[in-house]
Design goal:
By secondary structure, the protein is mostly helical. It has one domain. Helix content is about 70%, strand content about 0%. Helix 1 packs antiparallel against helix 2, helix 1 crosses helix 3 and helix 2 crosses helix 3. The longest helix is centred in the N-terminal third of the chain and has 20 residues. The radius of gyration is 13 Å and the shape is elongated.
Length: about 70
């Protein structure tokens, strides 16, 4: 599976975190749409289906969190 470049993933994570903070203070239909679009892009960029999995995969790929050893 192809993954986005780590720099692209860093940008997407940063945008997600910024929108999440903004949305917490001033929710609007426009912000919800931007958040939905960003979550979709994160999921497509990481080959996942939900935002938590997408963020975890993006952070692992860009080097923030190494993969867990499942002892197998």
């Amino acid at each position: 599976m192809l993954l986005a470049h780590p720099a692209v993933l860093r940008t997407l994570i940063g945008r997600y975190e910024a929108l999440k903070l903004l949305k917490a203070h001033a929710d609007s239909p426009h912000l919800r749409r931007r958040m939905d679009d960003l979550v979709y892009t994160l999921c497509v960029s990481t080959g996942t289906r939900d935002v938590d999995s997408a963020l975890l995969a993006a952070r692992r790929h860009e080097g923030r969190h190494p993969p867990r050893d499942h002892g197998g």
